[in-house]
What we know:
The protein is α+β, with helices and mostly antiparallel strands. The chain has helices at 11-21, 31-40, 83-99, and strands at residues 2-5, 45-50, 53-62, 67-74. β3 and β4 (67-74) form a beta hairpin.
Amino acid sequence: MKVRTFDLSDYPGVVEVWSEAGLEFRPGDSEEKIRVKIQRDPEFFLVAEDRGRIVGSVMGAWDGRRGWIYHLGVLPVYQRKMVATKLVRELESRMREGAS
């Protein structure tokens, strides 16, 4: 499994993760709104991928002082396998880099 930056082509897989993980889909989660988000700060939207399949995702935001975590979700079959932990650790690392 690897953690990497989200690409817009990952959108269908991420929506599947959100749905299966029980996350609420909101108007701001549309592909168009996500496109705007990744133009602003692409390094804070991550996916976990296993053998070509998106199995988890997390979105973050950083205002220069504080960081937020949104939409952390993992497919049920991959839960309790450290996927969320890896996603959050990578996001925190990227936020720390932004703070330097």
